[in-house]
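DM from R.C. (forwarded with permission)

"hey, sorry to bug you on a friday — could you get me a structure for this? deadline for the figure draft is monday and I only need the backbone to look sensible"
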Amino acid sequence: MSALVAFLHHLAAFTLVAALAVEFVLLRGELTAARARQILMADMLFGISAGLILLVGLARVFHFEKGAAYYFHSVPFIAKMSLFVMIGLLSIYPTVQFLKWRPAVRQGQAPMLADDTRRRIRMLIHLELAAVTALILCAALMAKGVGYLR
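My reply, with the result:
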């Protein structure tokens, strides 16, 4: 069961990264109704995968792996959780902007997107991707027991 839960955790993590990459790439070109719909779907997938990462990750911490006492004394784990929260906070602005597009997309119209808003959203998604990279480093350090405070 532990291996299955680990698989689900990793699958959700890869899905989150893919969804962010899709958003980043789709925001480069002309914003059409179809492209906006794809971005909305990618952002929904991002949110679902983030929720699954959190739920499955907490299940791993408390029920399937080394136990909460171990993880809460691990500097990389604390950094990893902090980065996860930071990624969530960074994602708020893009998601709010994307949700504003829904009425236009439902009517088959391309939403309005000012150049400065597009740049801001892309910068935030870029920061999220960088934070995910740091989070993966923390996960590797944590798995090897680096930074464990006894």
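R.C.: lifesaver. The two ends are 28 Å apart (CA to CA).
me: no worries. DSSP finds seven helices and no strands in the chain.
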